[in-house]
Specification:
Structural class: alpha/beta
Shape: flat
Helix content: 40-55%
Number of helices: 6
Length: about 140
């Protein structure tokens, strides 16, 4: 069975307990995976991690980019990854554009990456052909 990944991106989550419970209940019933996007910015923060119990957290490129050039932010990102793993949540680092960035975030323990290093966004009808010819792993 294929699972659907629901990416929450820039959309406020219901603030009421009933609204949030309703949203999470429907997501669980559909057996979809919940992935808050751009973690650390806007509505995607620790408060919602507590309530949403996501399957995967997607970290914004801005946070990743700063972490690769700043020791303090690098340590923060590493601890965020460790914290997520400690409660059974995967981490996806967004915005990977170079092989150097890829290796650094993989060393930190990121479960998934997303970015132009592999591909720019593709129209739906081009994805199958792209994946058939895909060879770049690391």
């Amino acid at each position: 069975m294929q699972q659907t990944n629901l990416q929450l991106s820039g959309v406020p989550v219901p603030d009421t307990v009933g609204g949030l419970d309703f949203l999470i209940g429907n997501i669980q019933l559909s057996q979809s995976l919940l992935n808050p996007d751009d973690f650390g910015t806007g509505y995607s923060n620790f408060h919602y991690l507590y309530n949403l119990k996501p399957d995967c957290i997607k970290v914004d490129r801005g946070l990743m980019k700063n972490a690769l050039s700043n020791d303090y932010e690098n340590l923060l990102l590493k601890h965020m990854i460790d914290m997520a793993h400690s409660v059974g949540v995967n981490m996806c680092i967004e915005g990977i554009e170079t092989e150097e960035e890829l290796h650094k975030v993989l060393e930190m323990g990121s479960d998934f990456i997303q970015g132009f290093y592999y591909s720019k966004p593709l129209p739906f009808n081009e994805i199958t052909d792209y994946l058939k010819n895909f060879k770049k792993i690391i």
